[in-house]
Amino acid sequence: MEAFQWQQARSPAEAAALVTQTTAEAMLTLQGMRSAQQAILVKAGGVDMLDLMKEDLVNPRRLVDISRLAELQGISREGDGSLRIGALTTLAQIAAHPGLRQSHVALAQAAAMAASPQIRNRATLGGNLLQRPRCWYLRSAAHHCLRKGGGHCFAFAGDHRYHAIFANHGCAIVHPSTPATALLAFHAQVELLHPEGRRRQVPLEDFFVLPEVDMHRENILAAGEILTAVWLPPQIPANRSLYLQVAEKAAFDWPLAAMAVVLDLDAGGFCREASIVLGAAAPAPWRARQAEALLAGAAINGETAEAAGEAALAGATPFALNAYKLPLLATLVRRAILAAAALPQDPRAS
Ligand SMILES: Cc1cc2nc3c(=O)[nH]c(=O)nc-3n(C[C@H](O)[C@H](O)[C@H](O)COP(=O)(O)OP(=O)(O)OC[C@H]3O[C@@H](n4cnc5c(N)ncnc54)[C@H](O)[C@@H]3O)c2cc1C
Ligand code: SF4
Known about the structure:
Among the domains are: 70-130 and 175-232, Uridine Diphospho-n-acetylenolpyruvylglucosamine Reductase, domain 3; 239-344, Enolase-like, domain 1, CATH 3.30.390.50. The chain contains 14 helices and twelve strands. It has helices at residues 12-18, 23-26, 47-54, 91-96, 98-103, 105-113, 117-122, 125-130, 154-157, 178-185, 204-207, 289-295, 302-311, 325-342, and strands at residues 5-8, 40-43, 62-65, 75-77, 83-86, 189-193, 199-203, 226-232, 239-246, 257-265, 271-279, 286-287. The longest helix is centred in the C-terminal third of the chain and has 18 residues, at 325-342. The protein is globular and about 60 Å long.
């Protein structure tokens, strides 16, 4: 790691004005021209940023620390029932929040399953959504791959066992954020502060970008923009939600396959609307639209849940080493639908 300056931001606006590049842009420098990096970058919890610096993948001139900004902290419910989660809220705070554990079960579960207790106490939601992917070639300074501005993807002919089974042409990363899977199922939006002072709110689905749109970044964050909060629209009290994942280790690791489901069921057990999102499957959290369509208007039972599990795989293009994800995802979808339907609903409904 090279020497760098440290600056404590006094406000989100000051941080936005200071920062010169996104971390993705800073990692795009040509191999062998590392001194060219010299960007001013933002740091929240620092879990991913320090990793990237230690691995010699970014070399910032200065880090702007936003971790002490009170206005980016905390979870609040607005008058219309929507929830605002400040970007600096930690994964541990999300996992333990009593209101979220009732109204957004899948999100609290996803936050609780990410990483390890120590990391969850440090990792912020904003930093989690913006962490760089875990592809081991991207994380190796010795491999100048397409996503870092090189001319070659090492995963296609290499070891792609943890890579994407959807939208995996060009670059086959999987999005690394566990909470993002659940947030997308709840139709979350991110709030962004531009260096010129404008604020914009973007649906999470539009915030993330696939390699076919832009190979070099995972989201549309502009240079200097600060992610200030995540918004969750009001939930219908009858909603039931669940997050499930399969991983090689019970903690301290990313999932091999994951999914979040949000079901809106009527009194007769019929599904009015289903939101089904797959994680660790694609370069962005992946909506299983065919499975959602199949459940709309249907009774939830073993047969429909199984059919939804199969439908969730529509369009998959697995590689030689990651086809094992297909049965994992189909099983997770089936189990999660049945378990969510059997859950007691949010007490606000009764
Ligand atoms: C062993 C291990 C296991 C892990 N397992 C999981 C897992 O299972 N699931 C999972 O989701 N994650 C996992 N992680 C990743 C971890 O959760 C993330 O690294 C962490 O959430 C990043 O948050 P941070 O606050 O530390 O971000 P930082 O490291 O401070 O920042 C991350 C990136 O976001 C940018 N940034 C941060 N905040 C803002 C903001 N508000 N506005 C604009 N830019 C910002 C930074 O510039 C940087 O590029 C794991 C990490 C480790 C080390
Ligand atoms: S999958 Fe993407 S990040 Fe990984 S080596 Fe290929 S281009 Fe690079």
